[in-house]
Amino acid sequence: MQVGDPTYSFDKAVELWALGGYSEATRGFKRAFVMQSVSAFVLAGGRNEGFGVLTRNRAKAALPFAGHYRLIDFALSSLADSGVPRVGVIIQYLPGSLLDHVGTGLSWDYNGLQRRLKVMPPFVGVRDTQWYQGSADALRKNLNFSHPERHGDIIICSGEHVYAMDFADAVRFHREKQADLTIVAVEETSDKPSHRFGRVEFDPENKRVRRFVEKPSEIFSEWISNGMYIFKADVLVRAMGGFEGELLPMNLPKDVVEPLAAQGHTFAYPYRGLWHYLQDLGEYYESHQALLRGDQSILPVIQDTRTNLMDRRLGSRAPACFGANSEVSGSIVSPGCIIHGRVINSVLSPGVYVAAGAEVHDSILLHDTRVEAGTIVNRTISDKDVVISPGCGIGVDAGRNQPNMELPGNAQDLTILGKGCLIGAGVQISRGVQVYSSAMIEAGDPALKAGQQNLATGAEVSTLLPQAE
Amino acid sequence: MILAGGQGSRLSVLSETRAKPAVPFAGQYRIIDFTLSNALHSDLPYVGILTQYRPYSLMEHLRYLESWGFTGRGRMGSVLPPFRGQTDASWYAGTADAIYQNLNFIERFDCDAVLVLSGDHIYHMDYRKMIEFHREKKADLTVACQPVPWEETSRFGVMKTLADSRITAFQEKPKANPVSNLASLGIYVFNAEALGRRLREDAPMADSEHDFGNNIIPRMIQEDRVFCYEFRDYWRDVGTLYSYWEANMEALDGSRGLDLAGWDVRTNMNPSLAISHRPARILPQGSANNSLVSKGCIIEGTVENSVLGPGVIVRAGSRVDRSVILDDCVIDTGAVVENVIMDKRGIIGRNARIGIGPIVPNQTNPDLLSGGLTVIGKAARVPAGVSIGRHCLICSGAQEAHFANEIIESGCTVQ
């Protein structure tokens, strides 16, 4: 059935769609109809301590990933591909690079009359004089962005997770169940239950939620909430006004989802697709290793994800150039890379240069990192614009047994080089060491000799306010 | 004004469905990107692009020229297709006629100099230096030139000059007795007033071909101040399949004069048009040497001395050598591909062997293929196990049914 069909009606189209009465060929069409009344909010303002210098100058949602993506690309691509026409991106913490990257949303097709993306920084007004006090607070201050008639549904999702999700299917479930709130639930596969997520228990038959607790100490169900919710718009609006006798909600899972789940009309949408949460540097590194292994639980995420290639004019970098004597294997290589040395089991972002006689093993090198001749780089994450001079050894030496307190436990055998740092000729930096952004490290540096694990010499001025990259 | 209507018939299947300026080059670029990037880096404020032959893929690529910075106040780019007016014939009769019909486009900018360029050459040039030279000489026309081997003069317009660079004679593609080996590069700076005057004078002439090389320039040499600006750097006319392949090979690293990264060549990075945005993956058993690998490629086999466009897949055990492979081709397991130009979306079946055999002239088009190249047209599917020699031409869309034998001898054409 198409628009020109005499038996066509909008309601019938929606009804047919809900029953799955359309062929694959009309998926885009039916999606556009059903998703017309859906708005989404992407939470991208959070602060995260687990990434060392990588998040000193940028929000976690702006972390580069798998070459030329940033974490927020996964949320925006999923929403765009699901046909969600209105997306609000909530920002707060170090939004500079995020603003540059998201732009007007053009890269995810958010342009034209029907599709709109808006970035939502904290603001002051007549009544509001504060930063966002939590996810619910941020939503409340931006609710008028969603469908003005207050009907339809609102998706809340994270801009910091790695996923490729069909929200249209979740919305269909939500409407079939006529739910006030649908919690997207993911089965926890790990043997060690995590305490970072909300936990949800539901009826396996009709999927009605029996119990939801945010970050509980008790493991009462193997289903966790992945931070994505679908609300009926009017339900969310009412909830934002506060429950009787309570203060205004500030934290979405704690102050809104928990009470609503207790009231009854909440369902859990069991999601078995691709989804990863990266807690810290160790998991960031491990997820790249999984990509390199071709792990099917993560590799498909980069198949259909779009990113903004205008920033740093990534889109017009030359194709990657492999020199006559280069040796590259098991690696991801972005445009603009020039490789004359060895690159094994590593991920290179655009513009990385590896000189003849240099070696890169098991590393993640972000944009425009230069590795000069005779240098060996091993198990290293280097941020953008890092220069490693000739004859260095980075991450070759195992380092001291003493843990680096500024790095998470699972990153103790990695070396982290901050944005724009310059490693002088012949410098040896062992594992578990972190070099701050813009630091200049030279051989014979006293800090290096003293075995300091967080190096901030030369141009690094720790009193400077963190700046957007 | 960029002349981008050329058919490029000697590029055979590559220009079957697209104008020559839109032919892909060095992986992700199209030939016209080089001229447009020069225009961007030379701070030219306005460009007009004259299209005629098969403009669709070109116009899709150009869009509003935002990829080359022709946006905002004071910078503008327009695509100028042929049109019908009260007195104008519908198609551009020649290069000069194309500019003549768009004189009102030029004159609205009230400029003093007009660059007339060609959209089908590979080079990097700062036009500002040439314009400066043009103004210093108080020239009516300045022609960029470069010495070429004497035996190639018949492909170019050649000119005779005085010590002060003034041009005294011009021959368009001389068959015999060239006056010199100084060839025109198809880059002209005209004094705007002189250009308008000469084009208006030429337009009503019945015996004129309305061509710059044949009509306008020879007449201006006699009556106006015409100078020659010598350009010594890298410049290639990729008009033949062999020269196209050779220039691609010169792009492999920056040392042979063609430096993609150093020149900062821009292309249309519009996400909705780009084929693939994934970074390239080199799997553990794969390797690439002396090659350009575009985004989205997956390499499990061996790639040497080759240019791979976006999204090319080279499966395990296969080998690609000295070849130019355009977007989204698949080289299946165990296949060998040597000395090949392969248009988009082609598939080489398992264990097929392409470009191996003696060098004999192509039977149907002996002049088209040289240097041992085999050319495979758009979306052609070479079945598994087929062996194809050198100087073979596999036409666009060829499929299993078109391959009568398992072995295609050198010099054969598969329709």
Describe it.
The complex is a heterodimer of chains A (469) and B (415). Chain A is an alpha/beta fold and 469 residues long. Chain A is 19% helix and 23% strand. Chain A has ten helices and 33 strands. In chain A, the strands form six sheets. In chain A, strands 1, 4, 5, 6, 8, 9, 10, 11 and 12 form a nine-stranded mixed beta sheet that branches. In chain A, strands 14-17-20-23-26-29-32 form a seven-stranded parallel beta sheet, with no helix packed on it. The longest helix of chain A has 13 residues, at 281-293. Residues 20-26 and 459-469 of chain A have low confidence and may be disordered. With 415 residues, chain B is an alpha/beta fold. Chain B has nine helices and 33 strands. Chain B has a seven-stranded mixed beta sheet with strand order 5-4-1-6-11-8-12, with helices on both faces. A seven-stranded parallel beta sheet of chain B has the order 15-18-21-24-27-30-32, with no helix packed on it. In chain B, a hairpin with a 3-residue loop joins strand 2 and strand 3 (29-30). In chain B, 52% of the residues are buried. Chains A and B meet through strand 14, strand 15, strand 16 and strand 19 of A and strand 14, strand 15, strand 16 and strand 19 of B. Strand 14 of chain A pairs antiparallel with strand 16 (291-293) of chain B.
What value does the average pLDDT of chain A take?
Answer: 87
Which spans of chain A of ≥5 residues are poorly predicted at pLDDT below 50? 20-26, 459-469
Mean pLDDT reading of chain B? 92
Amino- and carboxy-terminal Cα gap of chain B = 38 Å
Strand content of chain B: 25-35%
Q: What profile does the largest beta sheet of chain B have?
A: 7 strands, mixed
Q: Round the Cα radius of gyration of chain A to an integer and report it.
A: 24 Å
Strand content of chain A: 15-25%
User: Mind describing the biggest β-sheet of chain A?
Assistant: 9 strands, mixed
- Write down how many β-strands of chain B occur, each being a DSSP E stretch of 2 or more residues: 33
Subunit organisation of the chains? heterodimer
Q: How many angstroms separate the termini of chain A?
A: 50 Å
Number of helices of chain B: 9
